[in-house]
C-alpha cells in the first residue's frame, strides 16, 4: 500500500468511531495538559520575577540586626561595616514604620512609611513609573515630599491606578501634608513593597523613628560587580556580630534568595505535576492499547481481506501504528491547548492572590516540541503490540471470522 493509502485508511477508521477515539485520547489530553499548564505557569512566574527584581538585584542584600539593647544598626555601625567589607559598593540605611494617613478624603489606618537616603534607589534598582526620585536636596532640607510604591498606589486607588495622575497629589502622613513627586514601578527591591518613601531626615523629624533617632531598621547593600554576594553576606554577618560583641544576631539576606526560593517551590510543584502527568499518560497509553486490540478483533475480516488482496504485514503494522500515533497526537494537541488555557486562569488567580503585576504564561519551544515527541512516542509504544497482533493474523483464518 502507498503511504497516502495507509494515512487515508487510518483516518477513516478513527473517524468511524469518533466517540471511542475521543474517550481513548482523554488520558493523553490530561497528561499533556498538566505538563503544559505547570510549565507555562512556572516559566511565566520566573520571567515576571526576573523582570521585576532585575538582573542587578542579584548583587543586592538586605541587612538587619536584632540585639538585646536595640533593633537596628547605627550610622557608626554602617561606617564600620563599609570599612570591614569593601566589596559592597553601596550601604544605604533606611527606617520603616507605619502611621495613620489620609489620601484624599479616605483615612488610612496603618500606611507603611520608609525613610531613605537618595542612594537607596540605586541599591534597590528602583524604576520610575512616573515623576521623579528623591534627591540629595530633598534630604538636606527635610522636604515634605514622597515617592509612592506601585503596591501602595494600587492599595489606595485600586488595580486601575494611574501613576501619572498620582504625581502632584497630596497625602497627609502623621498629620503632615506631603506632595507625591513620583511613583515607582513594581521592580527591584521595591517589588511587592507597599510604602510611601520619604527622605530619611523628614521621617525622623515629621513622623518619628520607631527605634531611636540614630538607628536604621535595615540596611540595603549593593555589591561591586564581580563580587560573590553570598561570600560578602557571610563577611558582613561576622563583622556586625563581632562589633556588637555577640550580644545579638545579624541577618544578611541576598535578594537573589527570593528567586531561588521561588524556583525551589515551583520546581517541587512541577515535579509533582509531572509525576501525575506521567501516570495519566501511562493510563492513556494502556487505554490506547486496549482500543487498538478491540479494533483488531472487530476488523479481523477486513485485515484478512486486505492480506488476501496483497497487503503486506508491514502495511498492516503501519496502518495500526499510525492510528495509535494519530490518536495520541490529537490528544497532545488538545492537551496543549487546554493546558495553556488553564495556565492563564491559574496565572490570573496567582497574581491576584500575591497582589503582584500580571503573570504571562510562556511555553518554551523546546517544551512544545518535546510534547509532540512524547505524544507520538506514547502512540508508538502502546500501539506496537496491537499492530503486531493484527499483522500476525492468518489471511485464511481472518476471512473465516464473522
UniProtKB/TrEMBL annotation:
Cellular compartments annotated: Cell membrane
Residue ranges constituting the MacB-like periplasmic core domain according to the UniProt record: 21-237
GO cellular component, one term: plasma membrane
Bilayer topology: Multi-pass membrane protein
A GO molecular-function descriptor: transmembrane transporter activity
Keyword Nucleotide-binding: yes
Keyword Protease on entry: no
Alphabetical UniProt keywords: ATP-binding, Cell membrane, Hydrolase, Membrane, Nucleotide-binding, Transmembrane, Transmembrane helix
Leading EC class: hydrolase
EC number in record: 3.6.3.-
Pfam families per record: FtsX, MacB_PCD
Annotated TM spans: 21-42, 271-296, 317-343, 363-385
Location of the ABC3 transporter permease C-terminal domain: 275-395
InterPro entries referenced in this protein's UniProt entry, alphabetically: ABC3_permease_C, MacB_PCD, Macrolide_Exporter_MacB
Chief subcellular location: membrane
Family: Belongs to the ABC-4 integral membrane protein family.
Protein name per its UniProtKB record: Macrolide export ATP-binding/permease protein MacB
Top-level taxonomy: Bacteria, Bacillati, Actinomycetota, Coriobacteriia, Coriobacteriales
Gene behind the chain: macB_3
